[in-house]
Amino acid sequence: MEEMRLQKYLAAAGVASRRKAEELIQQGKVRVNNKIVTELGTKINPEKDIIKYDEKIITVQDKKVYILCNKPIGYVTTAKDQFNRDSILDLVKVKERIVPVGRLDMYTSGALLLTNDGDFVYQVTHPKHEIEKTYTVTIKGIVQKESVEQLRKGIKIEDYTTRPANVKILKTEEEKDQSRLEITIHEGKNRQVRKMCEAIGHKVLALHRSKIAGIGIKDLPLGKWRYLRQEEIKRILAGTIEKKK
Ligand code: URA
């Protein structure tokens, strides 16, 4: 392997996306030959230098794995945290050092990608690539057509106006006083779907991501996972390339 930038190496090793790896470096969490390095321009020679993150030596694994999981609620999409909450990484057990591609809230279920390919994480999560995500959301109350129109056009959530979204009313249930919507967005602000529904005055009762980058999880029971097929990986990456133009 040739000399390369430290953040690229960390991404290739699956530690984090390139962007996140830059943050880890700047936060002084990465050592090269036992010295903390915070300079983003740092180049390393993978054959000679010893790179450590989190007190562990980081090596680049040749085999890249790409996984689709149906996340149950109650799992966080980070590694085990200080509250010792269950992590999705306790559920998807493979020998490669995988990370989730983006995040889902603890109380959101559904489609989540995981991989040890940091470049893939970067491609799929970068806002400019506009990966499509589809959610089924159950909300309290009977939704009005005007509110749905607001969600479609874009709505202010805190200091941000969301981009146009595809929104369908799947069901309204008078007797239960709840509605179910399907919302497709191409962005991923923190807790975006929950905030969008709150902005039209409805509390979210349940949130499930049914598809990511056009790949659904209907055949995957909650808590189960499978490897992505080559053709699916290509399709996801092709989607990101088209959007880059
Ligand atoms: N929007 C949310 O509010 N939560 C998620 O987990 C994903 C999208």
Can you describe this structure in just a few lines?
24% of the residues lie in helices and 29% in strands. It has 245 residues and is α+β, with helices and mostly antiparallel strands.
Question: What do these coordinates show?
Answer:
It is a single chain. The protein is α+β, with helices and mostly antiparallel strands. Helix content is 24%, strand content 29%. The protein has helices at 6-12, 18-26, 88-91, 118-125, 145-153, 192-199, 230-244, and strands at residues 4-5, 30-32, 35-36, 43-44, 51-53, 56-57, 66-71, 99-100, 108-115, 133-140, 156-157, 160-161, 166-173, 178-185, 204-212, 215-216, 225-227. It is elongated, with a radius of gyration of 20 Å. The structure holds uracil.
What's the arrangement of secondary structure elements?
Layout: E1 4-5, H1 6-12, H2 18-26, E2 30-32, E3 35-36, E4 43-44, E5 51-53, E6 56-57, E7 66-71, H3 88-91, E8 99-100, E9 108-115, H4 118-125, E10 133-140, H5 145-153, E11 156-157, E12 160-161, E13 166-173, E14 178-185, H6 192-199, E15 204-212, E16 215-216, E17 225-227, H7 230-244
Helix pairs in contact: 1-2, 1-4
The protein binds uracil.
